[in-house]
Amino acid sequence: MSNLKSNEIRWGIIGAGDVCEVKSGPAFNRIKNSGLVAVMRRDGRKAEDYARRHQVPKWYDDADKLIHDPDVNAVYIATPPDSHKEYTLRVADAGKPVYVEKPMARSYQECLTMIEACQKAGVALFVAYYRRMLPNFLKIKELLDQGSIGDVRLVDVKLYKTPEPNIVGASGSRENWRIFPEIAGGGYFYDLASHQLDFLDYLFGPVAEARGLAHNQAGLYPAEDIVTGSFRFENGVLGQGSWCFTVSGVSDREITAIIGSKGQITFSYFGGWTVTLETEGREKEIFTFAPIRHIQQPLIQTIVDALQGKGTCPSTGVSGARTNQVMEWLCDRIT
Prior knowledge:
This protein folds into two domains: 9-131 and 297-315, Rossmann fold, CATH 3.40.50; 136-291, Dihydrodipicolinate Reductase, domain 2. The radius of gyration is 20 Å and the shape is globular. Helices cover 30% and strands 24% of the residues. The mean pLDDT is 94. The strands form two sheets. It has an eight-stranded mixed sheet with strand order 8-9-10-7-11-12-13-14, with helices on one face. A six-stranded parallel sheet has the order 3-2-1-4-5-6, sandwiched between helices. By secondary structure, it is an alpha/beta fold.
């Protein structure tokens, strides 16, 4: 049994896999008024092992038992995207708030179904786009809010990776679920670009329209391995992006530039904790931030605050669904 008080957020995790080892799982116990009380995996031995190593009071191999555990009053769904909708509907039906991994679901339509179910049940729905609360990304927002680069004209996103298994895994193993659209919704574009597009939504608001092309050029796995496209935010800022996961080492690159009338901000989503500001007539400024071990903790803090009526969380089902819609537009899929 948990020693948390009745008014605290008592979490259960469905799918306590790799992402829960460091990025998210330990964070639930590091936040005031929050604690992890139960975990579930279909393989009971793995669930028991996680619970033992992380000092979690309960473990299950049946999701419904965790969902209906009276000691659990909020559920984090950390499974692959093909089960996000199903579990969200079941948690909502039990009257408990939901925190779901990204991408929010396999399709925009699945996202809308999840939103509707949570609204009908009167429970909150949050999505794990944790970059919205990391200090290096908040610095970007601060610089924009201060007008450091003047009026924003253009966003340019580039993500090129080699098909090495430890980076974007060319392996066709079913364990590498990110390359199977029926599980992930798409390929590495859905897995990685979702973070990029979501944070741009946080900076500039919703994308009004997007056009793109997607293709499987190398044939290493079922999903698309290259996507290119352009998009327009409702506020008039334009954007363009290119994502390719089968380049050589000499082309390996990941950088985003926000270009304004007086300068630009450049940064990496996945390769570092620095933000570079360049403006006319001034020396280049590089802001460096210390890595955060439990990288989801700042976002989870906002969720706990929101559930206790002490604040708001910037990453909700509504914003998460928008990211899915933009990905579908860029992959030239009908929504």
